[in-house]
Each structure stands twice: as C-alpha cells, then as structure tokens.
Amino acid sequence: MKLIQRDGESFLFHISKREKGLLLEVLKMYPLIPIAHHRVSRTTAAPRAVESQKLLESALADRTRENKRQLLAMMTLESRRQEADGGHRLKFTAPQMEWLLQVLNDIRVGSWIILGEPDGKKAKSIELNDENARYYAAMEFCGLFQMTLLDAFQQSG
Amino acid sequence: MAETVEPVVMPDIEKEEQTGAESELDPGYLVICWDDPVNLMAYVTHVFQVVFGWPKPKAEFHMLQVHNQGKSVLTRESMERAEHYVHQLHSYSLHATMERDA
Questions:
Q1: What ipTM goes with this model?
Q2: Strands of the sheet with A2-7, listed across from one edge
C-alpha cells in the first residue's frame, strides 16, 4: 500500500488486491484489547479511582461500539469496489486515517497481549503455535499498515 | 387531599461542594505514559502530537523518555483535564495513567 496523492485533508492510496485482502481480514479481528486491560491509574487508593476507572471503561466501550459500526460500513463498501490498475484505490480523510490508526493499534496491541506480552528487553519471546500464529501475523501486518499511514502524514506535514 | 407540608432541613453541603470543586481544579494530577514493547515509536510520537498539539521535536522528546526511562510525565493538570488526556491516550491504546502528584 502506498500514498499516491494527497489533496488537502484527503489521502489517496494504491493497495494491491492481496494487501487489501489482508487488510480486510485483519480488520475483522477488531476489537482485541479487553476493556479491563485499560487502567486509569496505578494507584488504586487515589481519590475517585473507582469512579475514574468506570468512566474510562464506559468511554472506551462507547468508542469501541462506534469504531465497530464504522468498520463494518467501511468493509462493506470496500468489498464492493471494482479492481483497477492491478489493485484498488483507498481514499481517506485525515480523521478517517486517525480512526484507522486507532483500530489497527487495538488489533496490534491486542494480538501482543494474546501472545503473552513478549518483550525483547526482558528476553520474553513468543512461543508460536498453530493457535496463536495468526495473532503474530496480525501484529506485524498492523504495524506495516500503521507505518504506511504515519509516513503519509509525514509526507503531507 | 391536601399535602402536609413539613419543614425540610437541608444538609450543609456547601463546604463539601467547595472542597470537591477545588480538588477538581487543583492541577495536581500527572499524566504519565509508560513504556511497552509493542507500540511503534513513530506511532507514539504521532499520538502525542495529535492529543497534546505538540510540535514533533517535543513529542519525540517525550517518546524517547518513555522508551529509554520507562515512563514520561506528559503534563500536570486538574483531575478533569488529566482524565480527558488519559481517555484520549487509551483510545490510541497507549499505556497512560493519571497519578496524584506527591
């Protein structure tokens, strides 16, 4: 996937048929991060800690529902598009790019959690097997798509 | 049937409300971003730019602090503002918390 044109707040990408298939397949995995994974504070004794945590979980649950709704709409639209020039065109506005970055990162971080939170600094590696290999692939694909979107922002900024 | 009107004694809540309001306005909450091995450095920089409106060098400075020192204090705010920023950062799946400044 690569940026081929930017017009103001509008970004036009070319994506190959294979890449598009992968992207849509990966996006189907959303959401992956359990809401309870998000912690508002490390200090449970902080004033209003319980209310703040509930507020965060409620806000994230609302956002996840809205993201899921938008994602389904986008996937339905994209699955109907005709192929052109050996691939497809994807057109996003800047807010849509931000939204897609959030969705992709949820899948990336969620996959990392499912893989046991591997950490090179702590010599905690991934033990791949038939069940979790798809999450490793999703984590890497999301990273690649995210970098493409971030590069597009940089080129335009 | 006529309603019986009895004198109502209101609890003295004025002082409590004032204390609560002061606490919410007190800029004594730190918004901290913690290191994790999964978020991409370019992504973290981008999120700091978007959420705080920072220029890229400042966003990169804090991203590198997170990466090298394990955490970075991003801002010191009132409780309400700190909550707002933490919600924003979590919507991007960053590991961020708000902590009372000691």
A1: 0.92
A2: A2-7, A10-16, A87-93
